[in-house]
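Deliverable D5.2: sample structural annotation.
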Amino acid sequence: MSNGTTHLARPVYVVDGARTPFLKAKGKIGPFPAADLAVQSGRALLSRLPFSPSEIDEVIMGCVMPGPNEANIARVIGLRLGCGIDTPAWTVQRNCASGMQALDCAVSNIANGRAELVLTGGVEAMSYAPLLLNETMVNWMADLYAAKKPLDKIKVLTKMRPGHLKPIIGLVCGLTDPMNGLGMGQTAEIIAHRFGISRQTMDEYAARSHHRLAHAQEQGWMDEITPIYDNKGNVYQADDGVRADSSVEKLAKLKPVFDRHFGKVTAANSAQITDGATLLVLASAEAVEKHNLPVLGRIVDSHWAALEPAEMGLGPVHAMSPIMQQHQLSMDDVDYWEINEAFAAQVLACVAAWQDDDYCQQFLGLPAALGAIDEARLNVDGGGVSLGHPVGASGARIVLHLLQVLKRNDANRGIASLCIGGGQGGAMLIEREGVRS
């Protein structure tokens, strides 16, 4: 099942964008809460545009796990960036595609004439994912608070057991499908088995992701990143999860994580747990003309699809295929592709599905296999395996970076897509024809 957005009433342009370095979670909470990440990248972005933040009509942000002091985090971000008390702001959540969903909402509002300038994107501080009290502990605390007399309180205190202190790890809950109980890594194992993807192929892909990101950093191609500073004066300038010395031989030594006896998915061929933010400014043609704005590209179309939750990693092919049919595109008509690397197995399965006649006919409604994506045009500067996947931000990041790749290579058209926990997929068609710097 799927639904799409086509034939926009007004064109919608990406004016500019910025993101923080993606910082790998290292067991403890990171240096920046989510709102701080978004504000630092937002300041850099807005400071180079020729209008006041108060002229922004709306702020829309994707975020899956805002902190307890960040309720409706989009509003917090908008106010801290000076967008004004009269600028509406709202937060969206579509799991891994929350950042892309925020962009899609902004596109809709601009296309329909409800807004001219929108600050949008996504943010996630995954290292701040909560540790929760278990139900036994919650009930014990309720009894303790209900006890009025000192003797009653002592009786409740004597009932405390070590098991009361066992926490519930919020991140594990969030990465587990509530309908089937499968972790996201287990769903990657399922589709790897379906398409016969080997452990070596996954590790080769993972190593290549790291090498491509390292090369992009060396070449200075990650210029959408703005340095950020913590309150101790430390500066963070680059994605820090990259391992330039990654090799298939090294990765082969790691044990499977999600199916320890028969599995192929490891920590190294999976996306990293990461903190990061990506913000973009979207505008109507009228706003571009009024403020004499630069333009990175145009969001032409978007599509959302749903499928079996246990095979959620195949969501991108379900979301991208209708876009390609709608616009009568062949594989060669798309210059570059960004498919978010939740798992190496997941990207490889998407590539395989499009080359499988049975899958394309049975599940995508195509007459035959659509064809192969040229790996030289897919995730050319690495992806989630090497730079991380802060779930609220990744959907915005791949759109912004795709635009940068198109610009760098003087190319015109690209598609960005993600799989989504719960069994969904999202995709956006981007073009640069007629843009101005």
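Annotation notes: Residues 132-170 form one domain. DSSP finds 15 helices and 15 strands in the chain.
The annotation will be released with the project's public dataset once the embargo ends.
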